[in-house]
Design a protein that fits this description.
It is built from 3 helices and 4 strands. The radius of gyration is 14 Å and the shape is globular. A 4-stranded antiparallel β-sheet has the order 2-3-1-4, covered by helices on one side. The chain has 94 residues and is α+β, with helices and mostly antiparallel strands.
Amino acid sequence: MSEAKHQVAAIVLMLWIEEGDLDHSILDRMLDYCGEENITPLGNGEFYAYLDFIEDDYGYGILMSFGDKCQCIEPEHVRNEMKRRLKDSIRAYL
């Protein structure tokens, strides 16, 4: 039985924490995944996070779990796959 190989991609995420939002658990989760050295504050509650990402269902599930507080900026193929998966999820509820 052959093992499936998954690509590891360095991806850039944009993370939002709304001003006045006392629940910073989303940032805490991102710190767990990325490490403090890979998160850059941009001001106004925005951050860039650099993440080593394995392109499989589990990895995409992690990205989707951030909901509207996080967006994949690059690479484009990961961003496009996120769009496809989110559209499929929405269709399941229509």
